[in-house]
Amino acid sequence: MNIxxxxxxxxLVPEIWIAxxxxxxxxxxxxxxxxxxxxxxxxxxxxxxxxxHGLGLKEIQETIAKIDPxxxxxxxxxxxxxxxxxxxxxxxxxxxxGPLMKKLGYPTIFCNSLEVAExxxxxxxKMRCEQSKLTTVKALQSIGxxxxxxxxxxxxxxxxxNSKAGFLFKSTDQIKADYPQLPAYExxxxxxxxxxxxx
Length: 199
Known about the structure:
- The protein is an alpha/beta fold and 199 residues long.
- It has a domain at 2-13 and 69-112 and 128-198: Rossmann fold (3-Layer(aba) Sandwich), CATH 3.40.50.1000.
- It has helices at 16-24, 39-53, 57-64, 73-83, 94-103, 132-142, 157-161, 173-178, 188-198, and strands at 2-6, 85-93, 108-116, 122-126, 146-151, 165-169, 184-185.
């Protein structure tokens, strides 16, 4: 029994925080898990910047409403879901992911949640579990699934390295150089062919 585990941002949709950095004119918010391996550190830093600028969930959701999946992402996902089970495992938040899941045809997503005050200020975040991507892949394996994983960032490496087959997709030159053993792809056709071969 195979199950494919995909990252969301940078793989199927553009990076939400980069889009919001452009929209809000705050270039520091362009920093992502490609740059900072420690997710807690990254998120706490982001929340500090939002607070400093008086920005909350509403402003981010307004940006997200304008984001479309990457060209070819929905078709790739549809074809993949016709072949096997697929779960998107993301460190994003349910409050961010909803509109994007609609545009992708409502695939299954495991993600985290934000703590939001009544005035819309994001006061904190609740991770589903420690090392959520690796933990989820291990849990799926414990109930009889062989996992095939793909992602682009530091926080995807655990699930990629611990799966039956794992692939980098649209990753950074640095991550590709640090993990030469991982096949790296730039197009959905290449990734789909690699996943099909692993099934």
